[in-house]
Amino acid sequence: MNKKEQEKQDAIKCLKRDCKIKPGSTIIVNQTHVSSSGMSRRLELYVIDKKNNRLDRITYQVGKALEWNVNEKGLKVGGCGMDMHFHTINCLTWVLFRSDKLKSYKGNGGSCINWQSI
To answer: Hey, where are the domains in the chain?
Structure first.
């Protein structure tokens, strides 16, 4: 396993174990920047920590899990013409849970994680 694959696996473990993301969890998506061409945007992602009543930033872990560009400015999401917030959550759902692990869930991947845009 190379370094990039190891980072991806570590990020997935962190999101599931430390951030406690599971079907039904709520993720907050904040769009912080749109390029002048409109072809990319920067997103910040947070998970609600109900135990400590706060938002925990998960942008870096999501970027590593999806193998997308992520830095201090946020997660870079390329493309246009669709809901890029939904696209990000949908991709994250499939990386974390895959359809074969959602036996009791009926619906598409992105719908099993609740998300809100702010």
So the answer is: 3-117
